[in-house]
Specification:
mainly alpha, three-stranded mixed sheet, three-stranded antiparallel sheet, 14 helices, 10 strands, extended
């Protein structure tokens, strides 16, 4: 009021007359206090109603990316999948939980490679904070909570993008990983960067674009290890990657072995189905054990008076409740495969049959996946002799896929050397 008076401004209201008198000041304070009471009462009422809706498994805040609100009969406004973004997020979450994406940075690159995924920076980049939020929210697992309102994790009414087990795996992987900034030098221009070693020093090759005297840029791989014989010696990208692609083309089992592999997968699938009853009983035992641990921990909280100890036990109870929810979900879905046999193993069979086809797709995330799944160690490359014999992963080794070169035994004799 002093600031308004200093500027010779007048305050007017349609249903109240401001007067510079003791009576006018009293009524002004009275009306302001009444308005404040109404606002606080309304706020309390709204929070109570919203809290009750959250307790019932309904979201009440702005829909996160991948969902949108829609009126659903019997539910009112409910989260529904917002396609195609929902499917992109689902693939990213499942890929991180399964190890397809080794780090959050790779999930970020995957989102950026999807044209229909909304970008933040210049329409091309996704903020790392957005990726972290997506990976950490239980809403995508079909669950909802609000710690500020004292509402614990509970099953939501909306459709989940991933299972709660997948969500827990994601959180475990996030906790076990160290935070590292995104490396700008790992990109689609050099998919083998960090995956191929220099044969002279056994350190990974780096890569760069080199500008010639004419101003034309050329891609090269090179070793930056000081003291190495190949230090600063460039290898043309098409030479190294050409040798690697030739290696991939050769990595496929014979037709007979491939049919045996399909039969083994099918037998394992049927055998797994016969083990369902035993597995379900084991899950029930684990659930009973968790119930006992929760009850025991609750008894301890009733005895303790130290606030810090009680808080620690309450956190322990929350963790046990989360594990119990995972078991409940497993029991509910036990024996009900999410996909059919052909859907579950189609990609795996295609990959083992010919990993080159997946590499040739051009997607950096898929290329990095091929490198992780096809080889158990980094590949060594020599400037003089080319690719060394790589160590293939167990599936390729098991089915007789080998990149080693064999020759006939010498016609005269051979000697056995005992190590």
């Amino acid at each position: 009021r002093r600031d308004l008076a200093a500027r010779e401004a007048t305050v007017e209201c349609l249903n109240f007359k401001f007067e510079d008198t003791p009576e006018g000041h009293f009524f002004e304070v009275l009306i302001s206090a009444t308005g404040e009471l109404e606002r606080k009462q309304n706020s309390r009422q709204v929070k109570q109603k919203m809290g009750q809706r959250v307790k019932g498994g309904y979201a009440v805040f702005q829909a996160p990316i991948g969902y949108r609100y829609e009126d659903v009969a019997g539910h009112g406004k409910l989260y529904v999948r917002d396609e195609p973004v929902a499917s992109i997020i689902q693939e990213g979450l499942e890929g991180f939980a399964s190890g397809r994406f080794q780090a959050q940075v790779e999930v970020k690159r995957f989102f950026e490679s999807q044209p229909l995924f909304p970008k933040d920076l210049n329409g091309t980049k996704v903020r790392q904070q957005k990726v972290s939020n997506i990976l950490s929210r239980p809403i995508y697992a079909g669950y909802i909570d609000n710690p500020k309102w004292g509402i614990s994790l509970r099953k939501g009414q909306h459709e989940a993008l991933i299972s709660l087990e997948t969500f827990q795996k994601t959180q475990d992987r996030r906790k076990s990983q160290s935070k590292a900034p995104a490396r700008k030098d790992i990109n689609k221009d050099f998919p083998l960067r960090g995956a191929v070693d220099c044969a002279d020093c056994n350190n990974p090759y780096t890569a760069c674009w080199s500008t010639s005297s004419t101003g034309v840029k050329h891609p090269y791989y090179l070793c930056k290890t000081k003291g190495c014989e190949s230090h600063r010696k460039s290898i043309r990208r098409d030479v190294l990657e050409g040798a690697f692609e030739e290696l991939l083309r050769s990595m496929k089992p014979s037709k007979g072995l491939f049919e045996i592999m399909k039969s083994m997968f099918s037998d394992a699938w049927e055998q797994r189905k016969t083990q369902m009853d035993v597995g379900k009983d084991e899950l029930r035992k684990q659930k009973l054990l968790l119930d006992g641990q929760i009850e025991s921990t609750l008894d301890k909280t009733m005895i303790l008076t130290n606030a810090t100890a009680v808080s620690a036990l309450e956190k322990r109870i929350g963790d046990l409740e989360s594990k119990k929810l995972v078991l409940d979900e497993k029991l509910q879905n036990f024996g009900q495969p999410v996909h059919s046999f052909s859907e579950m193993f189609e990609l795996s069979l295609k990959f083992i049959a010919n990993p080159w086809n997946i590499w040739a797709s051009g997607q950096l995330s898929l290329k990095r996946t091929v490198l992780r799944l096809a080889f158990s160690e980094r590949i060594a490359y020599s400037r003089k002799t080319g690719l060394r014999t790589p160590q293939v992963s167990v599936p390729f080794e098991f089915f007789g896929v080998s990149t080693k070169k064999y020759e006939m035994v010498h016609p005269t004799r051979f000697e056995r050397v005992t190590p």
